[in-house]
Design a protein that fits this description.
Elements (H helix, E strand, L loop, with lengths): L12 H8 L3 H6 L7 H4 L11 H15 L4 H12 L3 H7 L8 H20 L5 H9 L1 H9 L3 H43 L7
Length: about 200
């Protein structure tokens, strides 16, 4: 009889998670995280709740898109301030991986170029003026390591991805909770009870 059990070497979501997302112990031993490890390893930042998970998704997508290096360190550090789930935030930073980064940066350049060109066509140029007055242009170029056009585009993409990720994660969380609740109600109605047959 043929063996129908799943291949041990085949990738699964759980094996992928354990392979790429560091554990609390690994983070605690990391020399770069060690100075603030006691804050990152707070239990509430590792619980999967309806608020912390969407925050983690949004944070990870934003950091993974806009910052080219040290995704894990930045995401872990910022998770403390926004009370995001640390493992989810770290996993979401994989949006900026070697397979996607070229496409993201190409799209970012196109978006930034179109946005700044349209802005320059106006008499006031509100986007460029606001960026210069707040020095946001310098901040973005330093964060991304890219030119102004690409940096603006990366910020737009990161903001859109983070917003959509937050909304989608919130919807999925509520859907799963409602599904579990319906199953429990159905199980209770279908059980014979203490005084049944």
């Amino acid at each position: 009889m043929a063996d129908t059990s799943p291949d041990k070497d085949s990738p699964t979501p759980k094996s992928w998670w354990h392979r790429f997302v560091p554990t609390r112990e690994q983070i605690e031993k990391n020399r770069w995280v060690r100075p603030f490890a006691h804050n990152v390893l707070r239990p509430e930042l590792w619980r999967f709740t309806r608020r912390s998970v969407p925050r983690g998704v949004a944070l990870g997508l934003f950091i993974g898109t806009i910052i080219p290096m040290a995704h894990f360190l930045v995401a872990a550090a910022l998770a403390m301030f926004v009370r995001a789930n640390v493992p989810v935030a770290l996993a979401a930073t994989f949006i900026g991986n070697p397979l996607t980064v070229a496409g993201i940066w190409w799209l970012a350049y196109r978006i930034g170029e179109a946005l700044l060109h349209a802005d320059a066509m106006t008499q006031v140029a509100p986007v460029a003026t606001a960026m210069q007055q707040t020095q946001a242009d310098q901040l973005l170029t330093r964060l991304t390591g890219a030119g102004e056009d690409t940096a603006v585009g990366l910020f737009v993409i990161a903001t859109v991805l983070a917003s959509c990720g937050y909304l989608l994660a919130s919807f999925v969380w509520r859907w799963r909770v409602a599904r579990v609740r319906r199953r429990r109600i159905a199980a209770r109605r279908g059980s014979p009870g203490v005084w049944g047959a």
